[in-house]
Design goal:
single chain; about 140 residues; alpha+beta; Nucleoside Triphosphate Pyrophosphohydrolase; four-stranded mixed beta sheet; four-stranded antiparallel beta sheet
């Protein structure tokens, strides 16, 4: 069984009781809604990765950010007919973006099949990645 660790940065982008999420196209959360974000590349600072990932997956430009929390998740999944295990570590940021541009609804050719705004109160918890579930519960309790 393949076991890997994944460290990434993820963004909470919300506006008027809506949250911006991506449709996952690969990895352990394929088919679920996830926070925009992803891996930190070699020689890249966390904030540089956050800026890049938001642009790639949503089309928006980051204008302001602040760390919210650090989350971990252990997940087993099947990919390419192999059982895999991943320890997932994520730095979660509260993010503001320039909403003047249009959201990127097409995929990025990597993880995202496109971004979309969702009403926080109407989300189906069964369709959310573990990090999104945590964030949605946090937002509902604010």
């Amino acid at each position: 069984m393949e076991h890997k660790k994944h460290v990434g940065v993820y963004s909470i982008i919300n506006d008027n009781n809506k949250i911006l999420l991506i449709h996952k196209g690969r990895g352990p959360y394929t088919g679920l809604l996830d926070l925009p974000g992803g891996s930190i590349e070699i020689n890249e600072k966390a904030t540089e990765a956050l800026i890049r990932e938001i642009q790639e997956e949503t089309g928006y430009t980051l204008t302001k950010h602040a760390i919210n929390t650090f989350l971990t998740n252990y997940v087993e999944f099947t990919e390419e007919n192999k059982t895999k295990v991943m320890d997932h570590y994520g730095a979660i940021y509260n993010v503001e973006v320039d909403l003047e541009s249009q959201v990127k609804t097409e995929g990025d050719g990597e993880d995202s099949l496109g971004a979309e705004w969702f009403d926080i109160d109407s989300l189906d918890l069964e369709k959310l990645s573990p990090f999104v579930k945590h964030v949605v519960n946090q937002l509902k309790n604010e």
